[in-house]
Design a protein that fits this description.
The chain is α+β, with helices and mostly antiparallel strands. It contains 7 helices and 5 strands. The chain has a 5-stranded mixed beta sheet, sandwiched between helices.
Length: 224
């Protein structure tokens, strides 16, 4: 049989057994194709970075601030009073409160941010003081259980804890009182589910949850 018309042949892919004369005529070879593809991919990755660079200048990444290892000057506003002190960056807010300022209401119990005995209010939000660095609280407003009331003039939440016997050993009590206060500040009439969710970060090893529930019931009826 005679060969079919060359014009009816299927086109060959780059890299197939194309005769040299055809490859030279088209100017395309597998090697040139791969080189072109690699160059295009590389350029595609570099162009977005080069677009923002200025000619003749190396790109300058911002240098992060480094604190320490020596003491750093900070200011803590604790219970309405500003305290200026120098602490190493590794010092926690709990250590600064207890050891440097004598504010011992927040307790060190688990020291793992699980029990809530060290709970304080920072700018209206609850935080575990044992897992908060003092340098990160620089300039922030901190409220501890001491800032709610005094033995002579207790905050209604504190008075309710005493009246309904909502404490035993006392280690968890300051954290619970602060957490109750923050909850009721945001929601004066919480539902049982909202109470459980809000106080889920505090643990009482003595099991005085019954007394705490009585506090909430009394609060919802009488208010502040």
């Amino acid at each position: 049989m005679s060969d079919p018309d060359p014009s009816s042949r299927a086109p060959r892919l780059a890299g197939s057994s194309v005769p040299d004369d055809e490859r030279q005529a088209s100017g395309l070879s597998r090697r040139s194709f791969l080189r072109g593809g690699a160059a295009g991919a590389l350029a595609g990755g570099l162009l977005p970075q080069l677009a923002g660079a200025q000619p003749g200048k190396a790109s300058e990444a911002p240098t992060p601030a480094v604190l320490g290892p020596g003491p750093v000057e900070i200011a803590l506003e604790v219970n309405g009073k500003t305290h200026r002190l120098a602490v190493e960056p590794r010092v926690t807010l709990l250590d600064a409160l207890r050891d440097r300022l004598g504010v011992t209401g927040p307790k060190r119990v688990c020291d793992r941010a699980t029990c809530g005995a060290c709970t304080v209010i920072e700018n209206g939000e609850l935080v575990y003081a044992c897992s908060r660095l003092a340098v990160d609280a620089d300039g922030q407003e901190i409220v501890t259980v001491e800032g709610l009331g005094t033995p002579e003039r207790m905050h209604p939440v504190q008075a309710a804890f005493v009246e309904h016997d909502a404490q035993q050993c006392g280690f968890c009590t300051p954290g619970f009182v602060v957490a109750f206060r923050a909850l009721l500040e945001h929601n004066p009439d919480p539902s049982p589910a909202e109470v459980n969710r809000a106080l889920g970060g505090n643990l009482c090893r003595c099991g005085t949850y019954g007394g705490m529930r009585r506090v909430l019931r009394a609060w919802s009826k009488e208010g502040v």
